[in-house]
Structures are given as C-alpha cells and as structure tokens.
Amino acid sequence: MMLKISPENWSFLIEFAWLCAKAAGLLGFVSLSVMFLIWWERKISAHIQSRLGPMIVGWHGCLQTIADTIKLLLKENIVAKDADKVSFWLAPLVSFVAAFLPFAAVPFAKHLVVQDFGLGLLYVFAVSSLGVIGVFMAGWGSGNKYSMLGAMRASAQIISYEIPLVLSVLSIVMLTGSLNMAKIVEAQGQVWFAFSQPIAFLIYFISALAETNRAPFDISEAESELVAGFHTEYSGMKFSMFFLAEYTNMFIVSAVAATLFLGGWQGPFLPGIFWFLVKVYFIIFLMMWIRWTFPRFRVDQLMNFAWKFLVPLAFLNILATALFLVVKK
Amino acid sequence: MPTLEIQQFSVSFGPQHPSTHGVLHLQMDLDGEVIVNCTPHIGYLHRDFEKICENRTYTQIIPFTDRLDYIGAMNNNFGYCLTVEKLLGAVIPERAEYIRVIIAELNRIASHLLAVGTFVQDLGAFGTPLLYCFREREMILDIFEMTCGARLTYSYYRLGGVSADIPEGFVQKVKDFIRYFRPKLADYHRLITNNAIFLIRTKDIGILSKEKALNYAISGPSLRASGIKFDLRKEEPYSIYPRLEFEVPVRNSGDCWDRYIVRMEEMEQSLRIVEQAIDKIPEGDFIAKLPKIIKVPAGELYFRTESPRGELGFYLISDGSTKPYRLKCRAPSFSNLAIISELAKGVKIADVIAILGSLDIVLGEIDR
To answer: Does residue A27 belong to any structural domain of this protein?
Structure first.
C-alpha cells in the first residue's frame, strides 16, 4: 500500500528533513568540538604538569585525536564472557544520545538554535539526566565487580547532584520568569546572572562538575580505586562512545552555564557565536584546570557535600531571590 | 514470602591494579563500599634473594641488594656493605664515609618524593603532583648517574667504600639541587599539604596507635608518625651520622596525613644533612684497600640501618669462607604491610588506597 502524500504531509516531510539536516550539522559540530577538547585537555594537562603533551602528529599534535580515533575504530571488539550482551552494547549509545540531545535547545547565537522550545531549560535537564541510565547499564552489563561499583557510585552521585543543579537554576527562572533559553539570555542585557546570582552560579558549577563525573568528583571512574569504573570492560569504538559522551556532557553543561550565567551569545562587536564559544571554552578550561589540580573526594564525603551543604544552600538562595522579588514589587 | 538477602562480595584488588604499587594482591570482602576483611597476598615477586646469597661471594651480593627496595637502592647497598664491613672489621676511609652519607640522603629524598607523589596520585590528584615529584627526582638520578652510570640499580657502594670517586662538578651539582629543591618543597606544601580535599581524605584516616605500631614492628616514617621518636641514625648511629646535625620529625596522631607530613619534613632534614656534609668532604681514598678475595671471619651479626622505609636489617652468619653461610634480610616494607588488614577493617575502599599509599611499601623488598 502506498502512502498518499498530501500537501500537509509534504510540508511535514520537508520540515523533518530540515530538522535532520540541522541535527546532522550539530552532530558534526559536536564531534569536531570533542576532538578539539580532547587535544586541548591533553595540552593543558601537559603544560600544567610541565610536559609537552602530544607533539608528533600535526602541528603541536593537533591531529593526535584523529589518529587516536582511527586506532580505536580499528580495535578488536571485545565483549566479556559474563557480560549481559544487550545492555553492554546499548549502554554507550544511551550515554551518548543522552549527552547529545540537550543541544537541540541551546541557542548558539541569536536565532541559531535547532529548536526554540518554550520549555527549553526543562528539556535540557530532563534529557541530560538520562545519561545515568547508560552508565548503570554499562556497569551492570559488564559483569565486572569494579564496573558495578563504579556504576552504583555514578548513579548515586548523578541523581544527588541533579537536585542542587536544578535548584540553583530555579532562582534564575524566578528572575526571568521564563524557561526559554533565548529569553534568559536576553534578560542578561545589563548584568550577567553570574554577578547578580553568584551563589547560584557556584552551586551550578560544582554540581555540573559532579554531573559530568569530572574531578574532584570522578569517583565513578576513580582510577586508583576502581581501575576505570563503569567502563573498565569497554574497549575500541564502544569505549570511544563513552569518551565522546563525557566530553559532550562537558560541553553541554558549560554551554548551559554560559547561557544562564554568562550572558550567552551577548558581547560587543564580534558575532554572537564567537562570544558564546569563548565563554563555553572558558568554563571548560576551568573544569580542566580543577581536574588536574585537586585530589578526589571519597564517596560518602561527596554525598554529604551534596545533601548537607549544596541543597540547603540552594534553598536559601531561592528564598533570598524570592524575598528580593517580593521587595522589588 | 521470599526474604531479602544481603550478600557480601569479595574483590581481588591486584596483583594487576593501578594503585597497588607493584604486584600486591589484596583480597577484600566488601559490604557495599565498606571493607569487612582485607587480606594481603604476597609472593608474586619472589626471587629467593636469601638463598641466592648463600651461593655468591660477598661482592657479588651487592647487585642483588639493589633489587630489594629498588626505590631506595643506595640505602640497601649501604646497609649490606656496613654489615659485612663490621664483621670484617674493615676501616673505611673518611672520604668514602662522606660520599656514602651524601648519596644515601639524596636517595632518601628521591624515595620520599616518589612516596609522596604516588600517595597523592592515589588520592586522585591525577598526575600533577606525581610528575612534579618525578621532575625533582630526575635531578637526583642525574647526580647518581654522574657517580656510577646507573639510574635505578646502582651498586655504587662497595665493600670498603664506593666504586668510583665523585666526578668533577659533582659538588656543584648537589649544591645546585639543594638551592633548587628548597623552594619546590614549599611549593608542594602550598599545592598539597593544606588542600581541603586532601585534608578530609587523609586526616583521621587509618589511625595507627602507638601500641599497635610497636606490636606490629612498624618502622620508619610510619612509626614516627605514630608518636615514637625512633630513628636508627640517632639511636644506633653509624657512619658519620653522629657528626651531623639533624632532627627527627615526629607526629602524634598516626593518621595518613601525619605519615605524609613526616616524609615531607624528613626531606628537609635530609637536605640539611647533605648541605653540611657536602662542604666537608675530605681528601683521601674513596675505597679501603681490601684483599681481592674477601673472606669474612666466622661469626654472626645483625646490623640495622635506617632506610627510607624504616629499619633495614641484615643478619649475617659467616663460616669464614668467601660466601655467607646465611644472610637474612629484615625488610621494613614487609612489617609495615602487615598492619594493612587491621587498619583496613571497617573503612571505605578509597581509604584503603590512602592507607596503602601512606604506608609506602615496595614489593621488591616484601617478596625478596
């Protein structure tokens, strides 16, 4: 049976194709960006540690990531004997998709956004928290004790830190009265929220570090304890999917931070996208700097920090913001 | 109705693991993240040092001692040579004594640098402190390379002295190192010592009480961190140590942070020792004139020295021939490791790593 194509269907198809094209473009951008970030992190860590880092492949090793990707693509596909095949195979995909989806709502510049949601912010946090499912599937599916421990830690951590993360953002939403990210950016015409809401920014930044499993909150892949945590058993392309997801996650939390707190695309003279990327990369740089400097928390200290310090602080901040709004009226 | 059953599960930590400092195998029974039982299994690196020694001449044994505690190889050479010389009744030239002490103390700094670096690395400060420590250690290795050409297993000490005189430029290079290293040590304190995360990870973790430390025969920095002022360089002075001024750093609470800080302070003291000795190196021979074939008179002797990890003792029985009848080595790491199952009980996985790192063991010496 042939599907009859009416003019309405046509317009839907065109819209769908356009959306696919945008998604493909975004995917290309994200992959390139991750490649750059991996090289950049290696360079930054090297210079922090008084080394040179990659120097052989390309100018100052700038093609190193491409070489690494080729190596990972060509590697043998190893599946552990005790692995639960379905979740073992699906886990990297789930992780990456969850990391990639939020990009749809993030405005890179004025009108440069895949889909301008009214509830953009809510969407971003909703889909990015799906990533924990991928992590847990990986830990469970690997059939390895270290992976399992890592996955349990990661799940507990990500779920706990989601709360202060969202609470910190809530005060911004109260100020702007909108969940649309473009509107939030426009609301920062005079003052960035990083300055008018410094506590919210701090809570967001700390929680974002924990959300992305970056040091000092990287207990889920704590190398010195759990070998590699939830992705101990992964190699080759499946491993690189996790790697891709990790850096994509870093990019997305930094992009949200830049949008919510650092005025998004706004900036003098130069085009919006330039300012946006500068801010994003600046936050990512901060994350890398922290990673290569600090030791790691212990699992219970990490949870205490979230529940006994960050959550109450975030509530206080909301209360203060509410009082401010009432008084202003 | 089915009842919910809670199971313990056991994890083999090592022998291949990023933070067991060699081929240590910890069998850990876990209740969630908490350790119920922790049993160390050793022997993966066993190579029968003591039996081999019974079939080698006294001079031939020196290279084997390098491979005990390969991080502080010079100190092993030192301990072994002193033991044999004592039984032999040999008189060591003054110049050799000075060179030996300078080298041993530099080696102690190198060893503590590695201990501190890997300890902080195990706590999750990924790479940075470790590589800083390696950068400084590299300079010491360069100095050692000048003297004997080797960078890890030196065999620089010989019965009666050292294998070669210090080369030209040696004194200057050591002085340069001291000048360079003092500010770096202050840098480490700024980077690590009072870092908030470092403090909560190490303060009150793995507390080793005075009594336990004595009962388990803990020695070295780990003992001194538990409040016992015992350093063989002071208690049973050997070589030229009595003539040198230095203090023995002691801390009282016996937690991981104390063990760390004792090592940091010991590095400063070692610098002091090197500084005093380097200006006073007298002229003379660098090795005593001993017969080509060394026959140690019959008898037995236990002699102990302070290696970077603690009390390194050699128990030598000689039957008057060219080979020892029996040579027993008392390795500090071996005794220091024994406490791990006691300290690990009831703590989290991450703490075991911290405790293990703070005890600073070397498997080469444990398995022998």
So the answer is: no
CA B244 from chain centre, in angstroms, equals 21
DSSP 8-state code for residue A113? -
> What single-letter amino acid sits at A185?
V
Q: Is the Cβ of A304 closer than 8 Å to some Cβ of chain B?
A: no
**Domain residues for A290?**
78-328
Q: What are phi and psi of B184, to 5 degrees?
A: -65, -40
pLDDT in tens, B98-124: 989 999 999 999 999 998 988 888 887
Write down all domains in chain B, each with its CATH number in brackets. 46-367 (1.10.645.10)
Residue-wise pLDDT tens digits, A272-326 = 788 888 888 899 998 888 888 888 888 888 888 888 888 999 889 889 888 888 8
A305: contact with B, CB 8 A cutoff: no
Please name which of B162, B107, B79 lies closest in space to residue B331, comparing C-alpha atoms. Answer: B79
Nearest residue in chain B measured CA to CA from A51: B131
Work out the number of other CB atoms within 10 angstroms of the CB of residue A11. 10
β-bridge partners, B314: B303, B329
Domains of chain A: total: 1
Q: Which of B26, B29, B123 to mutate to test the interface with A (most CBs of A within 10 A)?
A: B123
pLDDT in tens, A92-121: 888 888 888 888 888 877 777 777 777 888
